[in-house]
Design brief:
heterodimer, A: mainly alpha, 4 domains, two-stranded antiparallel sheet, 26 helices, 4 strands, elongated, B: mainly alpha, two-stranded antiparallel ribbon
Chain lengths: 497, 268
């Protein structure tokens, strides 16, 4: 920044000062200094003399490290600044119309820090602290980070933080400060960066929102002081504001395992911002790119599971074939009301979850997969028991004591491989081990009791097919025969009477 | 057990049986066996069919009332065990008595049973003048008996496989389990339907016996019913020839229509 701040990306001079300007003016009056009307009268002789040189462009002052600064100030702006009643030497005490000592600074930074110290000659720390935004800056002074007033307030056209320019939007007002590397210091010493990274070319989801829509209590007039124990506390508190608009999602999260963890005091549990980010929040997209991005969010906390998933038939298809049909984390675990997957309740839902795709011809038929798998499972021992257990649980009458094998117990969860391409002997060997988890004394023959999702037919399990078919034919004939006999008997009885 | 209402032309059952002789038809052992079958089969049908038709509201209502499918299964298994023991006892007693006490195997299916069935069909259509004349058990009773006996053996065997799948698959292929399931549930339906339609009609709703055929509960049957339904056995009990019995019966009741002689081959 030069001695005279160049025009900011937005804004023109304001007709009226904002609250800050008023505040500064009042401060000056209180200090017994002649009013700001001085600026209207005109510049002091000394100032006019200095401006003869410093009011012209093209002169620079070079520092020892070869950085330089243009020693120019805009006379017009200086004339309307709140400091126009001051003569140059009141801020630059060694200089006068007679004296112009040569100064040497190591760097531009050193120069800025030294020159900012001048402001503190009039504006005491207590006065500055009255604004919470300044209080934070001053708090950092003890750590050696000297706040540089001129970073926000132009050096010569001293106006409020707006720079005396028209603020078209609240966002612009906030960005006046939050474009800089400011930090909020938490009680445990954590630093929360306050610089807001918003690229204006980007169309993020919240582009139409004002800062105060989320930062409740803040406005161009209000800037309450906030105090957080840690940076994590700040993030969690900040996420609370999301529910003001996304109440449906918020209520869902209340049922999630993440919220349960959080309420139990585990602050690592994710909150809205952890997955969605803040400020430049991207739109949710359903394409491969969006779905891949979603898996990356979960990966932040679940890297091991992500690695296993990436190698599975589903993950491989997503990452290497850009396949949109395969499930990503949230298809099974859901995004907001993420349940604890280790509960019996969740376990019971798994067949339906897998069935969402594997019983849907529109999804799996093109891969040559049977859509009968869910039906085959549900009509067999495990499926029936599972269905009844769920019913029992819903009625609250009875709590099943044991888990029933579902899809994932045989096929795996995140590490699902293709059942078609796997070696049958290998599959069977694994199956025996799985069966033995519940059926302790299961032998090698035992897994064959499960018909591998096949419906019995003449080519697959013909004996079972024949038994079923024979009974299907025999039972109706028998019933009709018996009823016919009964009717004949009644008829004969009636005739005889 | 079965006739066509000819004996009902005059008088009512109460009048008829008042001064009539009652004949002992079933021993206490048979009565107990029947009670056993009633109790176990009611439990087995309720707990078994509710599992087979588990998706139906009524089945789910029942399962929840019993306290869940696990309870239903345990009740079913132990009721099945009880039924199986009764079945084994029955077969053992029958075999022993036939072999050692030289009892007549009256439940054995014979050629006459098929002939009687055809005869009755013809009678229903008016092609015969009288119903088939049967021995101690008519062909319809035999049909029910063998349904329960053969069905019971099949149910016991397949039920055991389903109860202890890991044991049976040690020496039998795994496919035995779904095969046993198919047989067990289909055969159960057959037994259930025969009982629900045929046995309940014959012993309750048939106009011959309505409101209830009490012989299996009291052990006694009226001579009049014996004459109608089991004339061959009655003739043997009374030590007279069938012809003679039928003539006297006709005289006594005046209702047995004259007709051809009893089917050939039917003896006392």
């Amino acid at each position: 920044m030069g001695i005279d701040g160049g025009p900011a990306p937005w804004g023109r001079p304001m007709r009226k000062g904002t609250g800050l300007a008023l505040c500064l003016a009042l401060l000056l009056l209180a200090a017994g200094i002649p009013g700001a009307q001085a600026g209207e009268v005109g510049l002091s002789t000394e100032s006019l003399k200095c401006l003869e040189c410093h009011g012209k462009r093209g002169q620079i002052h070079r520092f020892q490290n070869d950085e330089f600064v243009e020693v120019y100030l805009n006379p017009a702006k200086y004339k309307i600044s709140v400091h126009s009643f001051l003569s140059c030497s009141q801020c630059h005490p060694d200089f006068s119309t007679e004296h112009h000592p040569a100064r040497r600074f190591k760097s531009r930074t050193q120069y800025r820090v030294k020159s900012a110290a001048v402001c503190r000659g009039c504006h005491t720390a207590d006065q500055i602290k009255a604004k919470s935004v300044h209080a934070n800056l001053l708090a950092r002074e003890s750590e050696g980070a000297t706040p540089v007033c001129t970073d926000c307030h132009d050096a010569h056209s001293v106006t409020p933080v707006t720079g005396g320019r028209i603020i078209r939007s609240e966002t612009q007002h906030c960005m006046k400060c939050h474009q800089y590397e400011l930090f909020l210091i938490c009680r445990n010493g954590d630093k929360v960066p306050l610089k807001v990274e918003i690229s204006h070319s980007e169309t993020h989801a919240h582009v139409k929102l004002r800062c105060s829509d989320c930062h409740y209590g803040f406005s161009s007039e209000e800037h309450p002081r906030r105090n957080f124990r840690s940076r994590r506390d700040y993030t969690i508190a900040a996420s609370e504001s999301c529910r003001r608009c996304h109440f449906d999602k918020y209520t869902k999260t209340l049922d999630s395992v993440h919220y349960t963890m959080l309420s139990q005091g585990n602050l690592k549990a994710p909150v809205c911002n952890d997955c969605h980010g803040s400020h430049a929040i991207p739109h949710i997209t359903r394409g491969v790119k969006g779905r891949t991005m979603t898996t990356q969010k979960c990966r932040q906390c679940h890297p091991e599971i992500y690695a296993v998933y990436a190698k599975s038939v589903h993950g491989n298809a997503l990452f290497n074939e850009q396949n949109q049909d395969v499930p990503i984390c949230i298809d099974c675990h859901t995004a907001h009301d993420t349940e604890n997957p280790l509960t019996l309740e969740y376990h019971e839902k798994i067949p339906q979850m897998c069935g969402n795709c594997h019983a849907n011809p529109a999804v799996v038929s093109k891969y040559g997969l049977s859509t009968e798998v869910l039906k085959a499972y549900l009509s067999d021992f495990h499926g029936v028991t599972l269905g009844l257990y769920r019913k029992q649980r819903e009625e609250g009458l009875y709590k099943p004591a044991r888990p029933i094998a579902v899809c994932t117990d045989c096929h795996g969860t995140h590490n699902i491989t293709s059942a078609v391409s796997s070696d049958p002997a290998y599959v069977k060997a694994n199956l025996v081990k799985r069966c033995q988890k519940c059926h302790k004394d299961a032998s090698n023959n035992f897994p064959d009791a499960w018909l591998s999702h096949y419906k019995p037919s003449l080519s697959k399990y013909p004996f079972i097919f024949i038994v079923d078919t024979a009974y299907k034919i025999f039972i109706p004939i028998m019933v009709v025969g018996l009823i016919l006999q009964i009717f004949l008997h009644i008829w004969r009885y009636a005739v005889n009477r | 057990m079965r006739s066509t209402g000819e004996g009902m032309k005059k008088g009512t059952g109460a009048d008829m049986e008042k001064g009539k002789k009652k004949i002992r038809r079933f021993s206490v052992f048979r009565i107990s066996e029947h009670w056993m079958v009633i109790l176990t089969s009611v439990v087995l049908f309720a707990t078994g069919l509710s599992q087979r038709f588990w998706h139906m509201e009524s089945a789910q209502w029942f399962i929840l009332k019993v306290g869940g499918v696990d309870n239903v299964r345990w009740v079913h298994r132990y009721a099945g065990l009880l039924f199986s023991l009764a079945l084994i006892l029955h077969v053992a007693v029958a075999t022993g008595r036939v072999l050692r006490l030289k009892w007549s195997p009256s439940m054995m299916i014979r050629r006459e049973d098929f002939r009687d069935a055809v005869h009755n069909m013809r009678y229903y259509f008016g092609l015969e003048n009288h119903p088939a004349r049967c021995d101690r058990y008519d062909y319809m009773e035999k049909f029910e008996y063998w349904t329960i006996l053969v069905g019971g053996v099949l149910m016991t065997a397949t039920g055991a496989v389903l109860w202890l799948p890991t044991l049976f698959t040690r020496f039998l292929p795994g496919e035995v389990i779904p095969a046993a399931k198919a047989l067990h549930s289909n055969e159960a339906l057959v037994i259930f339907l025969i009982n629900a339609i045929w046995h309940i009609y014959n012993s309750i709703f048939s106009p011959e016996v309505f409101p209830l055929d009490t012989s299996i509960f009291t052990g006694y049957i009226s001579r009049e019913r014996m004459l109608r339904e089991h004339p061959i056995e009655l003739a043997a009990i009374e030590g007279v020839g069938l012809e003679e019995l039928l003539k006297s019966g006709k005289k006594e009741t005046g209702v047995v229509k004259s007709g051809p002689a009893p089917a050939p081959g039917v003896t006392g």
